[in-house]
Amino acid sequence: MTTLLNIIVVEDHDDLRASIVETLRAIGHQVVGVDCAEEVVEIAQTMHVDLMLIDLNLPGEDGISLARRIRQSQPGIGIVMLTARGKVSEKLQGYDNGADIYLTKPTTMEELSAAIQALSRRLRPATQATSALQLNLHKLTLAGQQSEVSLSAQEASVLAALARAPGQRLENWQLIALLGKMDVSKAGLEMQIARLRKKLIQANVDDQPIKAIRQFGYQLSVEIQVV
């Protein structure tokens, strides 16, 4: 079973970056692609990042410097280096500066996906084994340790989107689009979220499992495994 992550891809080759982002999104990961290190800071301020995929030959700050800086500020983050630098000394430098995995170009999307999945078991080891809640998109159920709650297709879609979103939060317009009701009012959205909160609480979640963010939207405050 795939552990879904929030990933930033730092790659200045446009076609390769687009291919990597598309591949990882197809698996289910939340992925943002940027072409230089300078864009990482802004993105990281708006989303929780589990893993960064870094090319070393970047314009401006290079990948080695970026990885070293990220590793120092976020010791628990995953770092995969993907580069044309294939000498042993270059690989050692990569590992010395924060890489968990060092892949040399060209590599296949299958190998890259497998490497990320292997690393994900360290990044989120408890999510699959001990997650308090499990959302089954096929059965439309939300199961806690001692109870199971039925969901509508819309409720399951909204909950899955919140669980997978960066920082587990979505804007109001995104939630309205998921509900398929573009004419719904703010009060109508609040009513839908209130119903979903009740079902989360029925599944043995503490109060306020979905929090309102003023002038933005809503944030899920519990871990949910989506299957």
Question: Would you give an account of this structure?
Answer:
With 227 residues, the chain is an alpha/beta fold. The protein folds into 2 domains: 122 residues, Rossmann fold (3-Layer(aba) Sandwich); 96 residues, Arc Repressor Mutant, subunit A (Orthogonal Bundle). The chain has 9 helices and 12 strands. The strands form 3 sheets. The chain has a 5-stranded parallel sheet, sandwiched between helices. The protein is elongated, with a radius of gyration of 19 Å. The termini are close together. About 2% of the residues have low confidence.
**Straight-line N-to-C gap:** 8 Å
Name the beta content range. 15-25%
Low-confidence runs of at least 5 consecutive residues: 126-130
Task: Let me know the number of strands.
Answer: 12
Please tell me the overall pLDDT: 85
CATH-derived architecture of the largest domain: 3-Layer(aba) Sandwich
- The third-level CATH topology of the largest domain is Rossmann fold
What sequence of helices (H) and strands (E) makes up the elements? EHEHEHEHEHHEEEHEHHEEE
What is the CA-based Rg, rounded? 19 Å
